[in-house]
Protein 1
Amino acid sequence: MAPMMKASEASATGDSLNTKNMRRILASSFIGSLIEYYDFLLYATAAALVFNKVFFADAGPGFAAFAAFGTLAAGYVFRPLGGAIFGHFGDRFGRKNVLVISMLTMGAATCVMGLLPGTAEIGVIAPVLLIMLRVVQGIAVGGEWGGAMLIALEHSPERKRGFAASFANMGAPAGAVLATLAVSAVSLLPDEEFLSWGWRIPFLLSAVLVVIGLTIRLKVAETPLFQQLEETAEEKKIPLLEVLGRNPKNLVLGIVAGISIYSLAGIVTVWAVSFAVEAGADKTGVLNAKAAAAAVMVVTVILSARLSDRYGRRSVMLFGVISAAVCAFPILWLVGSGTVWGYALAVVLGQGLQGIIFGPFGAFTAELFPTRTRYTGASLAYQSASTFGAGFTPAIAAGLLAVSGGSIALLGGAWICVFVASAVAIVLTSEGRGRDLTTIS
C-alpha cells in the first residue's frame, strides 16, 4: 500500500477546488447543510405563522406568539449541547460518520412534527411533544454545521479555505429559501385548511430530502487532516475539556463575534415576519420576500468568503458588523411599515449584511482550534452564538417592544450594542488566513 500523503499535501493538491473529488466534497457540505437547515428553519417560519394558533391557541394572541417563539428558542438552547456531543465523536472518530447520524436524527424529528396532533386533539401534551422534538432538532443541527464545514475546509487548499468552508454556510440560507417557499406554497390554501393540514406537508417532505442527502454524503472520504491525526501516537483526550482548558479565550471570542450573525437572523427572518403580518402585510408576500432575501444572502456569503481568502477574515467581518450597526434602525423602521415592500427591503438588507459576516465565519472559527478539537471548538462557538443570537432574539424583541409601548427605540439601541460587542471580539481575535492548521495548538 502506498504511504498516505501528509494532510498539508493532500489538502493542497493542485491548489484548486475544481476537481472531481473536491466538487463532490463541496456538494456534500452544501446539500447536507441545506437539508439540515431546511428542517431547522422550517420550524422558525411555522412558529411565526402556525404554532401560536395550533399549539398555543388558548393562551391569548400576545402570549401565544411569545410561547411559540419560546419553543423556537428551545431548539437553539440545545444546539451547543449537540455541538459538544457530535463534536466529541467527530474529533475522536472522524467527521463523516457523525454527519450521517446528525442528518438521520434531524429528518426523523421533523417528520414526526408533521404528524403531531394539535392542542385541540390531544390537549397540553401537544406543545410538550413539540418542545421535545424541537430539542432533538437542536441537538441534531448542533452537530451538522461543524462537520459539514470541516469536511470542506480540511480537504481544501490553504489559500481557498474561506471559500470552501462557506459551502456549509451557504446551506443555511439555501435551506431557508426552500423552507420558506414550501410554507409559502401551502399558505395559498384557505386559512382553515392551511392550519389543519397544509402546514404539515413541508415537514413531511423532509424524508425525501434526507434520502437525497445521505446518497451524496456517504460517498465522501474522511478528511486528510483527521487521517493524519489518526496516524500520530498522541493520546486522545476529551475534546470539550481540551477546548475549555486550552482555548477558552478563542471560544468566547468566536461566540461573541458570531452573535451578530444570528441577531440579524432572529430579527429579520423570525420576529419581523410575525410583526409585519400583524401590522397588515400580506402573509404570502412576506414569505416570498423572505425567500428572495435568503437567496441574496447566498450570494453575499460567496462574495465575502472569497474576499476573506484575499484580505483576511477579520476585515471582511468587521465591515459587515459595522454596516449592520448603521442599518439597525432603518431595518426596524421598514419592518414597522406594515407593507410587503417595507418588509422586503428590510429583510434583503438584513440578510445581505448577515451574509457578509457569515461568509468568512466558518474559516474564522476553524482557524481558532487545533485539528484534535476543531470539530468541538468550532461547533461550540457557532452553536452558542446561534443560541444567544437567534434563539432568544425573537422573544426578546417582542418583550422590548411590549415594554416600550410599541416604540422601536429600545429594541434598536439594544441591537446596536450587540453589533458593537461583536466588533470588539473580532478585533481581539488573531487573523487566521494563511495559518498552518497542522501547527495550531
Protein 2
Amino acid sequence: MTRTGDDRQAAGTGPWWWARWRSAVLDVGLALVSAAECAAEGVPFAREAGVPVAVGVVLGLLAGSVLLVRRRWPIAVVLVAIAVTPARMGFLLGVVGLYTLAACELPRRVIGALAGMSFLGTMIVTFVRVGQDMARGDFTIGNWFVPFAAVTTSIGLTAPPLLLGLYVGARRRLMESLRERADSLERELQLLAERAEERAEWARSEERTRIAREMHDVVAHRVSLMVVHAAALQAVARKDPEKAARNAALVADMGRQALTELREMLGVLRSSDGGRSVRRERAVVPAPAPAPARESVGPAAVGEAVAAGVSSASVGSGEASAGVVRSGEGPSLAELEELVGQSAAAGMAVDLSVEGEVRSYGREIEQTAYRVVQEALTNVHKHAAGAKTHVRLAHRGSEIAMQVENEPPPEPASAESAGLPSGGNGLVGMRERVVALGGVFVSGPTEAGGFKVSAVIPASS
C-alpha cells in the first residue's frame, strides 16, 4: 500500500532539518569519518606549510565536519571541498559533497558549474603534485604521465559521484511523482466509492418508492371494491339473498386477487436477489419498434387524444370473473376491460371507449397505463360514489393516451363518509409513473363539477 502525503509528512519526525532519524545518524557518521580523515591529512599539510600541527588538525576537523549539513547546504559542502583541495585533504568530503549536490533539486547550470570547478581544482592540484614528485625523482616515467594522471584522477573523483547523484535524484523525483499519482488515484477511488454508495442508496430509495407504489395500487383498488361490495352485501343480505351471494362471491374473488398480487411482491422482497431479479426481468423485455418523434404533448393534446370520434363499447354490469395475475408479469392493457367490469359490478356506471388500432407495447408502458386507469377508478369509488365515469383509451402512432373522467356524483360524497380512507398518494404515484416514462400527466376538476385524469405515454419509452 502507498502512503498518502499526510502520512509521509507525519513520518518526518527527525531532528532539525532531517526528515528521519536514520538520515541524521548517517550524516553524523559520515561527518565523523570525514573529520577524522581531514584531521589525519592535516598533519602533513601543516608540516609542509610550516604551521603548527594542531592548526592543521583543527582545520581538518572543521572541514570534514561540514558533511553534517550536506542535506541543508550542499553548495557550501562542495565549496569547502574545493577550498581544501590544495591541502590534499577532503577526499570523502569532495565525493559525498558532489553526490549530494547532484541528487538535490538544484538548477542544472549550478550543478554543472560547481562540478566543473571541482574537476578543475582536482586536475590542477594533481598536475602540480605529480610534477613536483617527478621533479624530485620519485617517478621516472615520461612527461606524458603528468597530464594523464591529472585528467584521470580528476575524472575518477568527479564523474562517478556526479553521475550517481544525478541518477538517484532522477529516481527520487520519479518515485515522488508515482507516489503523488498513487495518492491522486486513491483519492479518486475514494470519491468513486462514495458516489457509488450514493447511487446505491438512491437506487434503494427508488426501489422502495416503486414497491410502495405497487402496494398502494394493489391494496387501494382491490380493498376499495371489497368495501363497496361488503356495504352492498350488508344492505341486501335480508332483502335479496341471491344478490347477496353474488356480492359475497365478488368479495372473495377480489380478496384472492389482492392476496395473489401481494404474495408476488412479498416473494420478490424476501428473495436475496429480489432487486437484481426485477432488474434482470426488465432487461430482457424486448423493446418496442422505434416510433417517429412525437410533438410536445401538453394538457390540450391529452384532451384531443381522447376527444370526439372515440368508438364507445359499453360494458355491462355482469358478474366479474376472477382473474389471476400472471406471476412476475403484472397487469397489462389486455386486462383493462376486466378492470372496468369489476368497477361496473361494484355498482359504478362506467363505460370504456377505445380509439385507434389496438397493439401491444412494452411491459412498463402497459403496466403504467393499467395502473393509471386503476387508480383513477379507485379515486372515483372513494370520492365520487355513484358518479357516471368514462374511460377512454387512444392508440396513436407514437404514443398511447388515456383519460378517466367522472361526472358530478348524485350526492356529495367524501372518502370519510364512504368509509374509505385516503392516503393522498394516488395522484402523486400516477404522476411519478408517467413522468418516469417521459410522458405527460394532467389531473384536476372539470367545469361540470367532476374530475378528470389524463395521461400520454410515448410508445417507445
